[in-house]
Specification:
Blueprint (H helix, E strand, L loop, with lengths): L1 H21 L30 H12 L1 H4 L7 H15 L9 H27 L7 E2 H14 L8 H20 L6 E2 L1 H8 L8 H12 L7 E2 H6 L12 H14 L6 E2 L1 H8 L6 H13 L9 H6 L1 H5 L18
Antiparallel strand pairs: 1-2, 3-4
Length: 331
């Protein structure tokens, strides 16, 4: 029984740790030897070549993870096209039989927002123990760290102990930032800000601070070039750095280190991971139009979308594939 309690505590805490750690990072993943904390500028989208089925699968797994990408396999191509056609009708908000980049962007933002709130709804009952439709810090702490706090001897001298000891005060700090009225309880909106801080303006400082803490290994309050590279790339047996690492070192010097002092402060980290001039939904919408617009009139017909249907399954326009498995009335 004790072992089960510990496993549940670990599952909740480490699962949330993974979700929180990924929050500021890009959705489009790179190979495992490289991590990125911000989406690339969309200037290259217009230069991307048409994608084949293999790269579609890369997109599906990058956006979904391997397990969730299997959602795509639950429908036949005919069923997928039929349901996608109904979604297209919803995206075409002015009913002119064309889908513009702006309409796609609006839809993607809506789907993204719904995905976030659905995600919160799925975990809400795990933390709202007294069922008062609010989550107090104590409820969250006990659900996530209760077993650790009640049985500290089991965690001594272990990686689990280090993880819990680090994450507990970090979670409390983030919870307080999300708790706008300071009553030590979170409404659904406040808890959403806690779990998805990158989506809320008042939480951006927390995102920056946590990123700094993750990368700043020497604890000097800055990110130097080696720390910046180490966050993306793990050297294996002191082998040579690949070309992209050398390119990232140049990026650090030319574009990240704005004041040229050899390190990144909080303002420079903010400029890096939360660029003000980048709109992920806009970039994705432009990408979808570019790849599907056969006659290059900068807008899509339903036929053009359905002809390229397997690309949309893996895009945000269909909630990373999930919308295709939902009843049309749910959308």
């Amino acid at each position: 029984m004790a072992r089960g309690g510990r496993d549940r505590a670990l599952g909740l805490a480490l699962g949330l740790l993974l979700a929180l750690a990924l929050a500021p990072r890009t959705l489009r993943a790179k190979p495992t030897v490289r991590k990125e904390r911000v989406v690339r500028p969309d200037s290259e989208l217009g230069e991307r070549p048409p994608e084949d089925n293999q790269s579609f699968q890369y997109d599906h797994e990058a956006f979904l993870g391997k397990e969730d990408s299997k959602t795509f396999d639950q429908l036949t191509s005919e069923e997928s096209k039929e349901r996608l056609g109904k979604i297209v009708d919803r995206i075409d908000s002015d009913g002119d039989s064309f889908v513009t980049t702006e309409e796609l962007k609006t839809w993607i933002k809506r789907v993204q927002k719904r995905y976030i709130y659905d995600n919160v709804a799925k975990v809400w009952k795990d933390y709202d123990r007294d069922k008062d439709d609010k989550i107090s810090w104590e409820e969250y702490k006990q659900a996530t760290y209760g077993y650790y706090l009640g049985n500290p001897a089991e965690f001594q001298d272990s990686l689990d102990h280090h993880t819990f000891k680090k994450m507990l005060p970090r979670d409390e700090r983030r919870f307080k930032a999300a708790d706008l009225d300071g009553d030590q309880t979170a409404t659904r909106e406040e808890f959403t800000a806690f779990l998805h801080p990158e989506e809320f303006e008042h939480m951006k400082e927390i995102v920056v601070l946590e990123t700094l803490e993750d990368i700043d290994k020497n604890g000097d309050g800055f990110v130097d070039q080696d720390e910046y590279i180490a966050d993306m790339f793990s050297h294996e047996e002191n082998g040579p750095e690949p070309d992209w690492v050398l390119s990232e070192r140049e990026q650090f010097n030319e574009f990240r280190d704005l004041n040229k002092d050899g390190k990144l402060d909080k303002d420079e980290i903010r400029h890096w991971i939360l660029p003000q001039d980048y709109d992920h939904a806009q970039a994705e919408a432009r990408h979808l139009v570019y790849e599907s617009d056969k006659n290059k009139d900068e807008k899509l017909t339903k036929e053009e979308i359905l002809e390229n249907w397997n690309m949309f399954v893996g895009s945000q326009a269909t909630n990373y594939g999930e919308d295709l498995t939902k009843n049309h009335d749910e959308l």
